[in-house]
């Protein structure tokens, strides 16, 4: 899993290259750390879960059940108390979430107008007031000496996610399916057999000819899973 997620399929070659006085780059460093965590027992004598698999499972449960950050912090404190000394359970949930970034599944935060007029990025990245409605970007009260935005957009960049899909052997094959294995014999088996899809390919030949450019279809239901608003407390 780690090899696929990080795009390294030959650890020995990478290990050898790092022996030649060459410092591993930031991606390789993250990869070796994940690999080490995947091989580290959660606590001395634990054979069922590793340090990494414990965090991944915990994040999965958190996502499925919509547990709050506060409940996760308290759960981790409880795990820390009941597990034997020397365990690698993190004390705070935000530390566990950093693993998501190393796996390429993190997200970026973009401040937004309280009335949804604009996002504070590009031309408005340094604006203090909304140019359309005039509302302040910030709350009146600061948190630990830092300004707090009224509203924050959590943006899940699609590019690194697509790159991850092409890095893994199994998913890469499926990503190339539309070009390599899609059968067009007049029978409607897949949306790509539809007239609309073919029309898109005809209008954008430079896109459709590239095997690594996969068509993406968005639906209104799916869009909220790509980004969501977060109100600062
Ligand atoms: Zn506004």
Automatic annotation (TrEMBL):
Residues 1-23 are annotated as: Disordered. Residues 9-19 have a biased composition (Low complexity). It comes from the Eukaryota. PANTHER family: OS08G0208400 PROTEIN (PTHR10775), TNP2 (PTHR10775:SF159). This is TNP2. It comes from Solanum tuberosum (Potato).
